Amino acid sequence: MPMQERLKSMCGSYVTGPDFWGREDDIARLRQLIDGGANIVLVAQRRMGKTSLMKELQRQLSSQEDRPWLCLFIDLQGAQSPEEAITELAVELRRHQGWGKKIGHLIGNFLRAIRPEEIDIKLFRIKFREAVTSGDWREKGNELFDALAKSEKPVLLILDEIPILINRILMGRTRTITSEGPSRVSEFLSWLRGNSIRHQGKIRIILLGSIGLAPMLRRANLSAAINNFVPFELPPWDHITAARCLRALAQESGIRFTNDAEIAMVEKLGICIPYHVQLFFKHVHDNCCTARKNMLCGPDNVEAIYRKGMLGTSCNELSHYEERLKGAFDERDYSLIVDLLTEAATSPPLRPDTIAGIAEDSAAEKAAIEVILQTLMHDGYLRETPEGEYVFVSHLLRDWWVSRHSHGYVPIARRAAR
Ligand SMILES: Nc1ncnc2c1ncn2[C@@H]1O[C@H](COP(=O)(O)OP(=O)(O)OP(=O)(O)O)[C@@H](O)[C@H]1O
Ligand SMILES: [Mg+2]
Fold it and tell me: Whose CA is nearest to atom 15 of ligand 1?
């Protein structure tokens, strides 16, 4: 009998190595592009497994025997400015053996007696950030790139959460685009683009993120800023991959699906975003092991677990979606988003006349609604039907949105009649 596949249930942070499921084709496609010298922009929906894919790629490339790569992974989630982004690049370099010495001179003459490779990462970050100014971040950044280009290994630089950084530069601490925002973003992106061109063939760059990078750049009139980066689409798992994953998770934890319950799970989700598959399994696991104390799980259990576990009030794990949208739009646009998504979820499809009604009700300009719809499609909430109407892509997200926002919601058709 063939060995049953097994997978450890992991829900939350990125996964790699034995915890990383599927994605062989995506890794192969990426490796082909990288080998061909491409710089890449990978933007996919929230929780699609972008970070995991990059960490797995990093693991594979840096450990290959014949031509190991120097792979740097920089998380820009906390960065507010180009200066902080450069600092994170230096910090990541500093983590690698021998690099503290090579970049130490950029910090200046502080603590002459202490060599940069001897100070801990936290202090290094503080000192580097103090040494970078709004006047010299480009030169310091260029020096980091020049140092990297001298590495004997080929270099892959992965910048995660780039749209969050761009959004912060664009808006500062406010929730609207500031007057200097677009020019600062433009400076940063042209610096990045310049280095990608200057070190072509030696350093590859991958930009990652989940909040609409393209619509954001369009909004700031910067669409051409990174047009030398090849777009890479990361799709959801197909149903076969997701069902196999569920069987492997069940195998590992001693659960047995009956009457194709795992197929019922996949169908409930509609679109198999890896995190949603893992999250659904976690609820199945809790239900079998704790609530029912029965390791058999059939389609009826799946239905109940979906309603109570995935959509219930105790499940806050999808609120990431809302938080990201809140962070990327000002209050007025966010309330438009709530109207559009609630209409699309409660009385699908979202038709052009409903959209016009929402625009009129909040005195919003057509262009603002257009940007929002583009972002909601780009980020995988909605898709446009051939009839020019909009529907939710993920059943789970639609059902979850209904459970969160339909209570007390006054549909636009009834608002107009008031
Ligand atoms: N290849 C995979 N194999 C198994 N589980 C995965 C895989 N990819 C993603 N997951 C699941 O999704 C979760 C989130 O993964 P990850 O952080 O890589 O996603 P992300 O797209 O970077 O998310 P975010 O939008 O929050 O940045 C993981 O904890 C895991 O549960
Ligand atoms: Mg991520």
Answer: 49
Question: Cα angle vertex 119, ends 115, 123, to 5°?
Answer: 130
Contact 210, 43 (CB under 8 A): yes
- Note if the pTM is more than 0.85: yes
Could you report the per-residue pLDDT of 383-392, keeping only the tens digit for each? 999 999 999 9
Asked if 299 contacts 259 with a C-beta cutoff of 8 angstroms, the reply is: yes
Q: Of the ligands numbered here, which is closest to the C-alpha atom of 53? A: 1
pLDDT in tens, 103-145: 666 666 544 445 656 678 888 888 889 989 999 999 999 999 9
Letter string b/e over residues 205-228, b meaning 16 or more CB atoms within 10 A of that residue's CB = bbbbbbbbbbbbbebbebeebbee
- Name the closest-CA residue to atom 13, ligand 1: 275
Chain mean pLDDT for the chain: 89
- Say yes or no: CB of residue 131 within 6 Å of ligand 1: no
> Going from the N-terminus, what domains does the chain have, and what CATH number goes with each?
23-232 (3.40.50.300), 239-310 (1.10.8), 321-417 (1.10.10.10)
